[in-house]
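pls design
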């Protein structure tokens, strides 16, 4: 009876953590380099925080560059699955920190080029129409210092929520690309997000707890 109770509690805890992950929690996702124009790789200092916006149907993406190696994020691209948008309906807002000046490409009425090197990915990275933003001005107005950021807010389609967004990122149905300029050698490179299975890690914690408990019971 004691063994059954412990196993049940472990399973319940694992399921509870997965299904009830805090909606206000930000999930930090990293990037990796997909081109080799520069000898420098700044992937370790690039990140995006994905968060549900309280009391709305929106999800926010906050981009940062914790600069160690000089560089500037100047373009941001979203590939929302089919190229026509499946998770999101539109960008509803964009917020810049001091020293940063990003503008939605749809507002600037420019047709941005695709993520540099995106065609080498499988499947190829295809920027969804209207789902990109870039620096309005010189490279210096990009994200090029610790503490600088830009936050892009998306309105979700239908009944989608933050968990659907995370699932899409983890399955590569949603990909995020960055064009990073002004490396010390003067070159620029494309970067794409690394899938981080947040829910899977929570589930793994529950399963690990189950394994530990079962081993202890057997002793």
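designed seq:
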């Amino acid at each position: 009876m004691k063994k059954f109770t412990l196993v049940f509690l472990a399973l319940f805890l694992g399921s509870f953590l997965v299904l009830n992950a805090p909606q206000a929690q930000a999930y930090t996702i990293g990037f990796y380099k997909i081109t080799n124009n520069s000898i420098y790789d700044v992937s370790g200092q690039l990140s995006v925080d994905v968060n549900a916006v309280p009391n709305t149907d929106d999800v926010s993406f906050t981009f940062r560059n914790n600069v160690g190696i000089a560089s500037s994020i100047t373009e941001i691209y979203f590939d929302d699955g089919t190229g026509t948008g499946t998770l999101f309906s539109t960008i509803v807002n964009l917020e810049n920190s001091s020293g940063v000046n990003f503008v939605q490409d749809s507002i600037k009425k420019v047709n941005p080029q695709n993520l540099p090197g995106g065609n080498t990915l499988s499947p190829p990275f295809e920027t969804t129409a209207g789902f990109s933003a870039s620096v309005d001005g010189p490279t210096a107005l990009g994200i090029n210092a610790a503490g600088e950021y830009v936050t892009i807010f998306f309105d979700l389609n239908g009944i989608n929520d933050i968990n659907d967004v995370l699932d899409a990122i983890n399955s590569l149905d949603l990909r995020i690309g960055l064009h990073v300029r002004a490396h010390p050698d003067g070159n620029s490179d494309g970067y794409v997000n690394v899938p981080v299975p947040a829910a899977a890690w929570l589930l793994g914690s529950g399963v690990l707890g189950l394994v530990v408990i079962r081993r202890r019971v057997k002793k």
